[in-house]
Design a protein that fits this description.
Layout lengths: L2 E3 L3 E13 L11 E4 L2 E6 L1 H16 L3 E4 L2 H11 L5 H15 L3 E3 L11 E4 L2 E4 L1 H12 L1 H6 L14 H9 L3 H6 L15 E3 L2 E3 L6 E7 L2 H6 L7 E19 H7 L4 H17 L6 H4 L7 E7 L23 H19 L4 E8 L10 E2 L3 H12 L2 E3 L2 E2 L1
Parallel strand pairs: 14-15
Antiparallel strand pairs: 1-16, 2-12, 2-13, 3-4, 4-10, 5-8, 6-7, 9-12, 10-12, 11-12, 13-14, 16-17
Helix pairs in contact: 1-10, 2-3, 2-4, 4-6, 10-13
């Protein structure tokens, strides 16, 4: 008899106030922004926040993934630094692994080469951290063949490494990849559809970008007092505001990536929700220390479809009579959620709840929970309740 989850999605909505900071910059070193509702808002890209989430998530689950263009070089370095291989032989192994992978790679220009087989970049791969050691183990098995082999001198050279075993390692995955997904078109059946969708975060209100001028004092000049001026001058952009953040977790996709292992899916889901809520991008942290916590977290367990509440802030919230945007943002989110539920119906909502710093109630957000752990635990228990042959398990 098969088991089926009683829910399909967990949607996470977060309101978080961030002080003077620059969490995410564009290619001109400017604060990222977005025009929404005809108003300029501060924005943090989903890629930026997702990386912070992933790094926190890896710590929680004790697994790590490696995204790199330098997989051949990484294996070569492991062979020399940890396994005592001669540098030339380790480089040859890296070159042959790159050639066997079937993934496009580049060799260092001949006139710049310090040693043969210097792989300077593959197409991007995304593999479990353990794949590096597994590729090194394969090289150990093939050491005699590598010692007798010729160097890889151009990208069309054939490798003596077994392609099927190399690609099998590159195709491997762990909980990180099963959750966040992977795009690796060069290796057959290596792609993994991500179970997580993360929206760009944006402020609930209009923001202004502030230009911060700074200078660095020359200590010797200051001590000798023999001239004026600083050692360096510059400027950086910053902003501040209350952000709306949203993500949804597809439980069916996650369970499918794990071959139906619901216990593993449940563990990953709970860790992801904790990481999504508590993570913060680290840009400019030494000069801004913007380490705040969310004002409010709202979770819905749904059986129908994901539902973002970003449209609550299409009309920017106004500063409260006594100052601040957090309180008006919370009230606006609750009122909008209540209106959406009235309009769309609640048959798709399996559970709705919230937790936060606000002492007042927010009926549009469902049941209030005592704290974050209680909220997440309750949502995950509900989401992973199963039915067997149509009866409650």
């Amino acid at each position: 008899m098969s088991q089926k989850l009683s829910a399909r999605f967990i949607c996470a909505h977060v309101l978080q106030t961030v002080p003077f900071a620059c969490l995410n910059r564009d290619d001109t070193n400017s604060v990222k922004t977005v025009q929404y509702g005809g108003i300029l808002r501060t924005r943090v890209s989903s890629q930026c926040w997702k990386r912070a989430i992933r790094l926190d998530f890896e710590q929680r689950v004790g697994q790590a993934a490696l995204r790199t263009r330098r997989i051949g070089e990484r294996v070569s370095r492991l062979l020399t630094e940890e396994r005592g291989w001669p540098a030339e032989l380790a480089a040859r192994a890296g070159g042959h692994l790159a050639a066997a992978s079937g993934i496009k790679f580049e060799l260092e220009e001949k006139e710049k080469q310090v040693q043969a087989n210097k792989v300077i970049g593959n197409a991007m791969v995304y593999v479990p951290q353990t794949a590096v050691a597994e590729l090194a183990d394969l090289a150990e098995e093939m050491r005699a063949e590598l010692e007798a082999a010729k160097d890889i001198k151009k990208t069309t050279d054939k490798s003596i490494m077994p392609k099927e075993r190399v690609t099998a390692i590159l195709r491997s995955r762990n909980g990180v990849i099963n959750l966040f997904g992977r795009m690796l078109a060069e290796v057959d059946n290596a792609g993994v559809d991500g179970a997580v969708q993360v929206a760009h975060a944006m402020t609930t209100h209009q923001t202004d970008v502030e230009i911060d001028y700074f200078s660095a004092v020359d200590d010797v000049t200051a001590d000798w007092n023999d001239s004026t001026g600083s050692a360096h001058m510059g400027h950086t952009e910053f902003s501040a505001g209350t952000f709306y953040r949203y993500a949804t977790l597809d439980l069916e996709e996650l369970a499918g990536n794990l071959d139906g292992d619901l216990a593993a899916a449940r563990e990953l889901a709970e860790a992801f929700l904790q990481s999504f809520v508590t993570s913060l991008p680290q840009a400019k942290k030494n000069s801004t220390a913007p380490h705040t916590v969310p004002d409010l977290v709202h979770l819905t367990v749904r059986s129908d479809r994901p539902l973002s509440l970003a449209a609550a802030f299409e009309k920017p919230v106004q500063v409260a009579a006594d100052g601040g945007y957090a309180a008006t943002s919370r009230d606006t989110l609750s009122a909008y959620a209540e209106a959406v539920n009235s309009f769309m119906g609640t048959t798709g909502i399996v559970q709705s709840g919230w937790a936060g710093l606000d002492p007042k109630g927010h009926p549009g957000l469902g049941e209030r929970h005592a704290g974050l752990n209680d909220l997440i635990g309750s949502a995950v228990r509900t989401a992973f309740a199963t039915t067997t042959s149509g009866a409650a398990a």
